[in-house]
Amino acid sequence: MAESKKKDLLADAKNFCDGLSNVFMLKKRDPQTRHLLEKAKLLIENLISENQRATSNVTSTPRGSRSAGGMGQLWVKLDELKRENEELRKHAGKPVDDRPSIPPKPSQGPGDVIIADLHKTKRENEALKAKLEKLETKIKEMDSVALSVQDEYKRAKVALETTQRSMETVLKDYRHMEDDLKLAKKESESLKQKLAKTMLPIGRTDNRLAENISEKCRPSNIAQLYNTLESQEWVDAKETLEEITDFEEEDIVQFLCACVMASFQSCKEVYNALKATIAELIRKPTLVVNDTLVGERNGKSKLPDDMTDIIGHQLRQHFDDIDSDVIVGMMCEKLTLEFTEFVQRHPHENKVVQKFMNRCAKVTWQMVIQHPPMWLSVDDHEFDDEKHKLWWSCDQAAANRIDFFVWPALYDYKRGNLLMKGCVFAS
């Protein structure tokens, strides 16, 4: 009876060993499984060899009596779980053979190792399933975000196409406007040329409304000349008078300012005399043969407005032909009463001072022949920062009353718009 049991046990062991060999052939790519199969096969072969050599009864372990069929079912179950584990790992994006090879403990048998591996595989399987569910949820969220982004992209694309069409329309309109502007400029230039060629002005010309840019002699250009007169010829004349005379600086600057005003008054007299003479000639043409023609101005005659405009236009065309020496002579006569000592020394004979006086005559003549005439003023008595600038030696904080003008203020007409501030000495 004992021999029969031993033979059955040896047969079971051989069958189990053969089953392990078959499983080994199937699972040879898995390092952990290969290790377990090799260990189990070695143990069974050692047990068989010990039973063949031993003469005494060998006590078998409770687990050794398990049939090869029961162990095969465990191997099949383990194989299914591992395949499922591998599929989950593929879905999770992890490599299949990333688990470390853990050798079995020496005290455990092959069945215990297989059962432990089975439980471990189940746990990994559950963890991978949970991770897979999270990934699927995240993929769904990403899909919804992608759909919203696609919708937004479609809307943005439609808006961009609409904007491009609008921009093309605007560009076309802009090109049409450019063409219209060029055409308008050409028409404007042609009209300006026609107006410049017209000798008789249409209606009354008034520089308070608009300047005639075809005329060189116009208020804006005159203001620039007046500024240059102050910054160049006036400075040279002042320095020269300081060198050739022993007068104080205050007396010199007052004299130069008086020169400008005397030139302005003289030019007005010449212009008014010209208009009165022409008016008298029209009334009495035979006076042209009379040498006392200039004296025949009794104020009874006055030129019509349209004729005054024509004369002013012609004078502005030939403004540079004025004989400035005659006006300088008139200036000296006016200055004799107030600046007798200066005039007695004949400052106009000095080349620098003479240049200043002649420039004053030419610039103020251009002021007078405007319509209406421009205006120089030295009539203010109270300092006003908007109309006056202080002489360098004055105290800005204490400036109140104007003692004298160093340089007259320039207006586009009497009581009109200020073009240049007057320089004053104020205390």
Automatic annotation (TrEMBL):
It comes from the Eukaryota. It comes from Magallana gigas. Residues 53-64 have a biased composition (Polar residues). This is Mitochondria-eating protein. The lineage of its organism: Eukaryota, Metazoa, Spiralia, Lophotrochozoa, Mollusca. Residues 118-194 form a coiled coil. The keyword Mitochondrion applies. One of its GO terms (biological process) is mitophagy by internal vacuole formation. Belongs to the MIEAP family. GO terms for molecular function: lipid binding.
